[in-house]
Amino acid sequence: MIRPCTDSDITEIFNIINDAAQAYRGVIPADRWHEPYMPLEELKDEIAHEVKFWGFEENGRLVGVMGMQPVKDVTLIRHAYVNTAMRNQGIGGKLLAHLLGQIDGKILVGTWKAAVWAVRFYEQRGFQLTGEEDKNRLLKTYWNIPERQIETSVVLVYKGVPS
Q1: Is the residue at 84 inside a domain?
Q2: N or C: which end of the chain has fewer CB within 10 A?
Q3: Quick check: is 163 in a domain?
Q4: For the segment 55-93, what is each residue's pLDDT rounded down to a tens digit?
Q5: What is the mean pLDDT of residues 43-48?
Q6: How confident is the model at residue 162 (pLDDT cuts 50, 70, 90)?
Q7: Residue 8, class by beta-carbon neighbours within 10 Å (0-12 exposed, 13-18 middle, 19+ buried)?
Q8: 3-state SS, residue 2
Q9: DSSP conformational letter for 141
């Protein structure tokens, strides 16, 4: 079941993000990795800046989360994570489809360049990589991230469900 997350889910969201983000360890640049990957205060700050999380619940427990955030004239897909033990069961795809069904207008997602599985996930669902120049402009316009993260990230734009 997909449902909106509430304040009472923050601990579970935190746990899911930090469990699933272990996939980045040793993949993204070492200077961008930290433990925990997303501290609790950073998660609360994201929520305070209008990241609305949706969760995939199974047997009464959240096992996956994905956020969306309106920024200026676009909506960003943010923080898409599924518990390690629950991966490859379609949960991420179901969450993404649910969010896409609620968004009108331009949709962007940013991820690590080295996270080829994440890039492929979005490409298989109608997103297209932007060029380097567009990527840099989009990251500086719609995200608040350091220059080093801009260098090591990609941006994908939603073009519609692939045929």
Answers
A1: yes
A2: C
A3: no
A4: 999 999 999 999 999 999 999 999 999 999 999 999 999
A5: 97
A6: low
A7: exposed
A8: strand
A9: H
Whether pTM exceeds 0.85: yes
Using DSSP's 3-state secondary structure scheme, residue 108 falls into: strand
Q: Give the structural domain span for 112.
A: 2-158
Instruction: Report residue 123 as tokens.
Output: 């490409």
Vertex 68 angle, CA 39 and 152, to 5°? 60
75's CB contacts (< 8 A; 6+ apart) are 68, 69, 103, 105, 106, 107, 108
How far apart, in whole angstroms, are the C-alpha atoms of residue 89 and residue 152? 28
Give the gyration radius of the chain's Cα atoms. Answer: 15
Domain count, the chain: 1
Instruction: Please check the confidence at residue 163 and state whether its pLDDT lies above 60.
Output: no
Query: How would you label 54-88 residue by residue, b for 16+ Cβ within 10 Å and e otherwise?
Result: bbbeeeeebbbbbbbbebeebbbbbbbbbbeebbe
Return the number of other C-beta atoms located less than 10 Å from residue 163's C-beta: 4
Residue 55 lies in a domain: yes
- Across the chain, what does the average pLDDT equal? 96
Distance CA 74, CA 103 (A): 9
